[in-house]
Description:
Blueprint: E1 17-19, E2 25-27, H1 28-33, E3 35-39, E4 45-50, E5 57-58, H2 66-81, H3 86-94
Antiparallel strand pairs: 1-2, 3-4, 4-5
Helix pairs in contact: 2-3
Amino acid sequence: MKCKLCENYYDTKKYIPKNLQCGHTFCEQCLLKKQTSLLNDSNEKEIITTCPKCFMKTNKKLPVSYAILDIIDIADHDTNKNKNNCSVIYCKIIL
């Protein structure tokens, strides 16, 4: 699976899939470019991430999308088991 912005494949090292509050997911590298810092009412620095798709803003720490990483792991595992039948992999991921 790829990040819709940079077209790089998600992984656990550099292109980590991150969930935004709006439900959209992009890699950490792309979302770092969408962050701004502001001072909140208590004069503390606050990091704001803007969704590149719907433009919703979030100030929370972005969690890793373990669902996407699990799908990638299943696909990698099944690819190694069924190298001659890729339709089996597709069906398992979709279902």
